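Notebook p. 47: complex prediction with magnesium ion.
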Amino acid sequence: MMKFANVIGVSFMAVLLVLLPLLLPAVGLNISLGTTVILFALAASSVNVLLGFTGLMAFGNAAFFGVGAYGSALFIADVNANLILGLIVGTVCSTLAAAIIAPFLIRRRGIYFSLLTIAFGQVFYFIAYRWSNVTGGEDGFSISKPPIFGGSSPTLNGSSYYYFCLAIFAVLLFVLWRIMRSPFGLTLQGIAQNEARVRYLGINSDRFIFVALLLSGFVAGLGGALYSVSIAFSYPLLMDWHQSGDFVMMVILGGVGTIWGPVIGAAIYAIAQNVLSSFTPAWQIIIGGMFIFFVLVFPKGLLGLGAARRRREEEASQDPDVAVVPAGLIEGRQP
Amino acid sequence: MTANANAAPFLRAKDVALSFGGVKAVAGVDLDVAEREIVAIIGPNGAGKTSFFNALSGFFYPDSGTVTLRGQDITRLRNFERIRLGMSRTFQTPSIFAELTVRENIMMGLQAQANVAFSMRGLGARGKELAGRVDELLDFVQLRSMKERQVATLSHGGQRLVEIAMSLSTSPSCVLLDEPTAGLAAADTTRIMEVVRDLHDRLGLTVIFVEHNMRFVSALANSVLCMNRGKVIARGTPAAVLSDAQVREAYLGSEEIVNV
Amino acid sequence: MIEHLAPEIVNGIVLGAFYAIIAIGLSLIMNLTGTINLAHGSFMTLAGYLAFTLMSRGSNFWFALAASAICTAIIGLVVERLLISPLYKRVPLYSLLLTFGLSLVFEEVFRLIWGPSTVPFSAPPELSGATQIGDVFLPTYRLFIMVALVVVMVALLVFLYRTRLGLRLRGAVQDAEMLAALGTNTQLLYMTNFGLGILLAAIAGVLAAGLLGLGPTMGNDLLMPAFITVVIGGMGSLAGSIVGGLLVGLAISITTLYLPAASEVIMYVLMAVVLLIRPRGLFGEEGIFG
Ligand SMILES: Nc1ncnc2c1ncn2[C@@H]1O[C@H](COP(=O)(O)OP(=O)(O)OP(=O)(O)O)[C@@H](O)[C@H]1O
Ligand SMILES: [Mg+2]
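Predicted complex, structure tokens below:
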């Protein structure tokens, strides 16, 4: 199930993404939209690590994205205008943020897990919102784009920044794909399908979930760090639960549990938002409506359409949606 | 029983109780199992057999009572910790990874056992060795030809065999089988019986199994425990327990008891 | 000292009562159907705007309160039947996302109809001004809200503990499977439960509008503390929601007095502490939701 699609699919996506800076202006869109697609895809992939691979209903990944954004932007603005260092700092911060809240999350499953991710995610929002002498409060703060290695090294702009992000993204996507095929990834899939059995194989699933959370925080934070540099700005709403919801929705739009689903979902979302918001101020109604439509009609997302049909032909009896419910009773009555 | 009288038994449950709301599913059950013994647990539906297994294996903590394995108190150990001590189990409805292949199902436990489960790369040097173990285990349950099949596409009997092979992947010294032949046709039942016999004869494991098929019970078990309403109503050799009046009464009307 | 603190304590209790009422609705819905209702705040705002519209057409406060709460609850029932109930057989993620999409739509509709900024929603004249209690003057509207929310809560408890439907609902919330086995019409219970949750949210929404100001995000601003209340109190526990709500409300208002910048963060500190001591919240029990 975790195949890197097929060669044609990968090549198609690769060519599309490489040519995007040429294609976007041709249809009157800005290159920065391409960058946004890639970075949202990173964030959506971070959700996918939890939701798709591990079966955990994470609803707070904007927090990691935002911590990455603030971490790198603050470092670049206040410490050292160095892109690479800024990215490292942002990503370390987001991974740390994940490590701080993970202990509260790892024993919980199902909607309790969602509830806690929503709640804990929002704490970072309020910190950014209230700690205004550092973070600029509600308005956020802007930065100027840093040179890639600081000092007099070149600054990446427009399409060069796009390709920079694309390269990082490609590496990360490949790494995620490798991880999913590794022993670690196999165990995560096991947790998603039947956590009780995983534990009855002598595996402490909580630890795997802890690492999955760190991985998710890392990927989201890297996306966020790149994003705040891309828009030269950082603001609290990046961490709001609405943003988390958008990231989850991207995964669902594309196809949950697939490598390419989050990319496709991020593209649909970012382009729809960009195009719609130039037409009508009420674009949120259409986006919200699209979410509702997909949830009701295409719950497996675009990539899931083909897969679902194939599976239904193979085996008519099982409802794949129901089968994904994480086992709730694993711990039983433990203190 | 074969156990040395003064040594602690291999597995001992003492006065184990477990209730759900007002229902006393297990109401004070004692059980001593010697190493390499085969113990059958029988009893009508709802007798508390599965709940007893759940208490032994840490699916639920018992409300009271103790469970010891090789003299070590494991009552409050978490389920995965018991597995690491050599206990292993199957479930009444096969607990498998339906969307993974047979190979992946078996591999997961092997990885954990070999301490490579956290590897985010490949299996590295252990890969060959573990692949060999997968083949061995699949040979044991005669499923090698199904190695790359998705488990969901296997027959019910096939899934039960996969689950047994999975429970062996953790190199247990003792396996708990919850109704290994439930819902199987006669041919599959015989096959499972042979596998269970092999668990003992070839692998030298201690086997505790819950079973409704009395032919199976009397053919394999060294001793039998009969439960009803959470309590033990008879224990002893298969012949003695199956001819016990109370046992026959407990089964009356609830279940057809298969005669020897 | 006390003259500073007393209003803040009243404030905290009022806020806490809001959180409690919202949390009870959220918690009922969560426990019975596994739906985390992210549109809960939108229903509150909706009720506020409906009351506002009625009042600007000349209706008095009391009629507006009742009519808008009932209308909102009916809209809630329609939403539950049309959009949410088809998702009950799926993973709870989908109903969560559906209500998320719904809240986006609602918020934008509010902006389109009533504008992006707050509208003037004032408490009725008989409830304005201040009331003297002992040495301190306290705003009458706040005292009224306190009383009103207590009345609502008592009414809710009477419904849940003294009526047949309420008893069944409580039974179902505690053990949905058991009830299905007994053959109770579960769909009807799901509906009642959702409607009840929305009704509570709607009443709270109208009352909150006169206190906090009515804008498109009013309900959503109350939603997060309410979620935290659920976590602190324990999912599915009425007592937990009430105690949790009061704790959160008091913590926020007292922190507002001494360290305003930490007024939101304090509830997270509270939540973290509670979870460390009691992983399932103050009144939480082992539940099917892990
Ligand atoms: N998780 C649970 N929650 C509530 N009650 C339970 C649970 N598990 C078992 N019970 C109850 O405990 C009693 C014993 O059930 P158990 O499954 O242990 O019986 P059993 O002997 O395995 O029966 P069967 O032969 O049907 O498998 C039953 O009344 C059952 O309803
Ligand atoms: Mg059973």
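Notes: The longest strand of chain A covers residues 141-142. Confidence is low (pLDDT under 50) at residues 312-335 of chain A.
Next step: compare against the earlier run before touching the bench.
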